[in-house]
Amino acid sequence: MNYENFDLFLFRHNKHRNKILQIQPHKMIYCELTVCLAGKLEYRVDNNPVTLCDGDIIFITEGQMRSRNGSNDYADYVSFNFRGNSPIETGTYFAKALDKEIRLLLMCCDESFAERGLNPNVTLALQGILNKLHYNETRKSYSDLTMAIIRVLKQKIYGKITLDEVSKNTFFSAAYCQRVFGRDTGKSIIGYFNELKIEEAKALMIQGGMSLVEIAEKLGYDDYNYFSRLFKKQCGYCPMQYIGSLTTK
Description:
By secondary structure, the chain is of the alpha+beta class. Helix content is 47%, strand content 20%.
């Protein structure tokens, strides 16, 4: 997913027993993602009531009508307001979608925001949450074979893989694997594999401690220039520019 024009302008974690602020009805000119960790939030989106309880998540997109009831009751929730593209294209309610991975990403947001305010790491964590929600939704329609192929690809993230290896691990012919995977995801198996690798490369860059050449080699790319071209094709900017964005914003 290309997030070149992604603009996060508000992060708020209501965790200190502050009252829930009322939001008057208005048309959204940005997107909102809100995660309810504990308590209850009562929204109205496009005139439809939506109640968030423990573990629920809501995504409200630009152009929708939104309001929220105020309350003196306690609710622990996290909200992001942003503009730009998202893998989730329509307003969506995710019941009990808060899992361990999303919780860890929210913890990273808290720590990074406390140290530096809004910064690229908070933005990257939000993008990770959006990707995880989108993946959880889309995989519901994936066949068992496609899910098996994805598991194989993730296990091989630091190496190389061929369609023959995918075939051996799934017990289906390479041609059949490619056909089913393409039908479910709209992507080739190797193309999807490279996308997984680029996302892992971004995570390694954030962690630090490795050069770009070392990251490319760790992910199984013998040719750094090829890795750099793949990175730019997927992200819209080269690895060096991505590193620069982490240190200059």
